[in-house]
């Protein structure tokens, strides 16, 4: 049985998520999300479950109730993704645009790990678990993280896996420095800005200078950095050997000077 059409309908905006539009539909009809889903006879707890997969029956019910074409409903969900794209697309919101959120919007592109500025209003996206003092984040870090985000997008969309591998290695290294554990793709989708921005900035740093060199130059090869490097490069022994080689050369060239200064 088809649910009755809703008294009021609203037009979805480009790139809006299905769950966002359903919430606005609910508000326009003076009910909440759960009541709307019950009216539509769609048996799920949250509309967000529909953003990634919505079956033909549910599409039909929604289209009929909102008086729109079924294709419009389908266009508000994520299309089929490659595994690489999927790993960099958050299942749940981790960042948002304060300006667009005020209008009750949730946009698809915010879910991408590389999204940095809102494509609708150009405001910088902020993490959902952002601290009140977030505005104190240094401009330099934001600038670098924005560069890294652009590189991540480029890497994610490139054909070969090489660029993305390099970017993820930088993220793994950044995670080690922040003692943040887990999957690098989750670090990039972290709802806390200190983790995400630092990891994105690391992608930019790895590009401008080879990562291993950058690590040694910036922090010295003390035990802590060595552990971080081991973690970042554990699957690439050749690279780790190169890191060691650079470190030894540096130690040798620094050695006599240290000895001289002692004499
Ligand atoms: Zn916006």
Q: What features would you highlight for this structure?
A:
263 residues; mainly alpha; 2 domains; two-stranded antiparallel ribbon; 13 helices; 56% helix; disordered C terminus; binds zinc ion
Task: Describe the model.
With 263 residues, the protein is mostly helical. Helices cover 56% and strands 2% of the residues. The chain folds into two domains: 18-80; 85-208, no CATH class. The chain is built from 13 helices and two strands, in the order αααααβαβααααααα. Strands 1-2 form a two-stranded antiparallel ribbon. It is elongated. The relative contact order is 0.08. The site of zinc ion has 7 residues, from helix 6. Residues 9-121 form the TniQ domain. Pfam families: TniQ (PF06527).
